[in-house]
Amino acid sequence: MSDKKTLLIVAGDGIGPEVMSEVLRVIEWLDKRRGIPFEVTQGLVGGAALDAEDTPLSDATMAKALAADAVLLGAVGGPKWDGLPFEKKPERGLLRLRKEMALFANLRPAPVFDALVDASPLKPEIVRGLDIVIVRELTGGVYFGEPRGITPLPEGGFRGVNTQVYTTPEIVRIARIAFELAGRRQGRVCSVEKANVMESGVLWRREVQALHDAEFPAIALSHMYADNCAMQLLRDPRQFDVIVTDNLFGDMLSDEAAMLTGSLGMLPSASLGEADAQGRRRALYEPVHGSAPDIAGRGIANPLASLLSFAMCLRWSFGLDAEADLLEAAVKGVLDGGLRTADIMQPGKARVSTRVMGESIVRELDKLAG
Ligand code: NAD
Fold it and tell me: Could you confirm whether 276 is annotated as catalytic?
């Protein structure tokens, strides 16, 4: 990787630009206080791009995304664009980014901060200290498999078909991400499928086990059926470190895991592509939440999911582990200090705006960095 660190920021719609302003504050801090400059370019996506460029993502922005070391996204969508035809919807911009950047691995951490343990719908003793990551395969499986479609039946009515399909290379590359991630964490991977009723699940289990035995014997690997995993996430979520699973099961299990935290405004994500010869991956980082049109423009959105997504970017795209740790510690410090945006407000705590939350993170970074 060259010394120049390039970032494309596509803030999008609704609260996207508001939370991204606070990420820019941290980017500036890294330059001034740590001597780590980023070359930042901004672009439009979603409704903002539709309004200005008549497309949810222009070719020029797509080209910038492909050229950047990493892309930071805010959120897309809103009622203004709801009635548009499918190919013009704001979400098409995000889907185009994911497709053309070939982002096959979606990493969704579900951290429960001590200060927010009461926000979980589960009992504090079940979720306190929870720290899991779901690694979801993003470009294969039943959402993309052929044949697919709806065909009429001769006797009337229709037949709807989708096909669950996975190949060895698709399974191996996502499993590799999970093993590498676990190696930097608690060293445990749980691979999830339905090998009891699906051949694609049998292959998934076989390939994950083979990769483990050949290259990652030090990682503790277990296998679990997806229905059992859904139950175990509620019964005893702390048994998991890294869960790796396919597109369909990952879609559901990552939302279930997110709800264990109870705080949508706190959840980051990363989507990664294949590594090139230099180990560089295309990568997109975004909060899990949407554009929150109900609170957009009021300056009260929680920027922490975007800041935690940027921490993932520092770690995965730039190998800046110390700075990622620092940013995560700053988030923890500010929460422990009692500051809350409206969405995570609790009795006896101080309610702050998006901007004050961002400024407080920077002050905490100053303090932690000494
Ligand atoms: P949402 O995540 O935008 O909002 C759900 C609820 O959570 C709202 O009450 C909102 O105010 C609150 N919320 C979300 N993020 C918050 C934050 N950072 N701080 C404080 N409160 C927050 O989901 P939705 O309402 O279902 O969707 C709104 C729009 O966003 C739709 O157009 C949808 O298509 C789009 N969307 C986009 C993405 C994305 O860009 N990746 C993801 C989900 C939804």
Answer: no
